[in-house]
Design brief:
The protein is an alpha+beta fold. It contains three helices and three strands.
Length: about 100
């Protein structure tokens, strides 16, 4: 029996990732899911969508924003911590007083 694989293109590592279905992906970088059942199909989907771009900086600004949005919005989140946006917003809420006062 063939093992099922979830394919994703990682714009941080510039390569195709393979994840096990129903498990938290091991990569916490900027990747997008490719709806494919084979590596060849996954690479063809990536090529049609983003051409020869391997890394995020090789995409247009609009494409970069879209990819980052997909990566940040995917569920389940692969990290338990806040996003950069959430951390920045929370940082402004801390009172500016010394400990113990």
């Amino acid at each position: 029996m063939k093992t099922l694989v979830v394919y994703a293109w990682c714009f941080s590592h510039g390569t195709l990732h393979r994840f096990k279905p129903r498990e938290t992906p091991w990569c916490t970088a900027t990747w997008v899911h490719l709806d494919a059942y084979s590596e060849d199909t996954a690479l063809a989907i990536k090529q049609r969508a983003w051409g020869n771009a391997r890394f995020l900086h090789e995409l247009s600004p609009d494409q970069q924003v879209a990819i980052i949005g997909l990566a940040e919005g995917r569920e389940p989140r692969v990290d338990a911590g806040p996003t950069v946006r959430e951390a920045a917003a929370n940082d402004r809420r801390w009172p500016l007083e010394k400990a113990g006062e």
